[in-house]
Amino acid sequence: MSNISEVFDDIFSNCDVLISSLQKEKDSSLQPYEHSLQEFHSNLASFSKVLSHEATKFAIAHSSPPFPDVSTTKSLAGSLCNATSQLVGCYLLLPYNCGSTFLQVIEKELESLLLGLKQFVEAIQNLILKNDTLQPCLVSTGILWEFCDRLPTLPQNNKEAVLAVLSREEELINDAIEELEQAVDASTNDEIDSDDETVIHGVGQELQPSVRGLVKTAAALIRKTKKVVNNFNGIDQNRLDPVVESVSSMSTEVDDLICSLYAPVNLILAVGHGNKLSSKVDNLLKTVQGIACEDDKAWIELLSKAVQHNFQNLQSKAASG
User: Fold this and answer.
1) Which residues contact 307 (CB under 8 A, 6 or more apart)?
2) What does the alpha-carbon distance between residue 205 and residue 261 come to, in Å, rounded to a whole number?
3) How far is CA 199 from CA 134, 186, 261, 321, in A?
4) What does the pLDDT read at residue 186?
5) DSSP state letter for 130
6) pTM of the entire structure?
7) DSSP-derived secondary structure for 253-271
8) CA–CA separation, 36 vs 126, rounded Å?
9) Where are the alpha helices (DSSP H) in 188-266?
10) Alpha-carbon distance 17 to 118, whole Å?
């Protein structure tokens, strides 16, 4: 039994080593990346299928008694570990200038897969050594298959990875705008109780036009930024990464600002959230300027003025509220 335990321990150890290798910094020397990406995605699709196949073999062999002998289990474990190492290895060969957003997406997914693999192996180990039920093993196998199937569907490059982040923020902000407009519409209903905390009324109603203008400016900026990113054809894909940092948590700032309009309204808090969102939008505008073309200058200036206008109105309304 101890020998069987050692086989499983070796698999866990291999996974831990691979997770550590994923977390190491990439070589910052610039290399051509287009060929590297094409080769990477081809290998990623191929090796993920191999891993899924090896995991299936491992699961079937240990699904019910009589279980394989130590030598057979060790051989199956070796094939499983080899497939996993090949999968991680193709990621480790990617150059730094592929873009950190893209690299982080792949790294995170591979790390999740390795943790899923450990869970899968642990379920089989418990099945053999602790006479556990088959159900946890089946669940873990299904989860591992899902990870393997998802790998080829990930963003193909840094541009797609950055656009995915922008799209998520845009969707969340649009949902917030819809919620705000519904709350404003509800506040016009004469039958609504003035103490109802689910609608915007009183001083919150006075502030909402400025808030809505500020939030819509943020949404417009993200739409425009997506076009700029989509049109970017620079060799150094790392130039797109500051966009992600700038847009990160913008939807959270939007939610906080909108929530501040509901009773009981704290004017200082509302202005503070407005200031945070304005700063976030201004920062993204400055970031976009670094990758935008000459034709983008007009709308960048327009949105910059819109931010200032709406925030100043918010401050004025709050001061008189």
Assistant:
1) 214, 217, 278, 281, 282, 285
2) 7
3) 51, 6, 9, 18
4) 77
5) S
6) 0.88
7) HHHHHHHTTSSSP-HHHHH
8) 40
9) 203-231, 241-247, 250-259
10) 12
Residue whose entry in the numeric block shows the structure tokens 């404003």: 184
How many CB atoms neighbour CB 11 within 10 A? Answer: 23
* All residues at 6 or more sequence positions from 111 whose CB lies less than 8 Å from its CB, including other chains: 19, 22, 23
| 239-265: burial string, b at 16+ Cβ within 10 Å, e else | bbbbbbebbeebbebbbbbbebbeeeb
Nearest to 80 by CA among 108, 20, 120: 120
* Residue (of 290, 277, 285) closest to 304 by Cα position: 285
Residue 269 neighbours by CB distance under 10 Å: 14
Low-confidence spans in the chain with pLDDT less than 70: 1-2, 26-35, 132-133, 188-198, 321
Q: Determine contact, residues 191/254, Cβ cutoff 8 Å.
A: no
CA 270 to chain centre: 28
Give the position of tokens 């899902």.
146
Tokens of residue 25, six digits: 């910094």
- Supply angle C-alpha 216, 274, 297, rounded to 5: 50
Q: What is the DSSP string of 56-97?
A: HHHHHHTSSSSPPPHHHHHHHHHHHHHHHHHHHHHHHTS-GG
pLDDT at position 80, please? 96
- CA–CA distance, 47 with 86 (Å, rounded to integer): 7
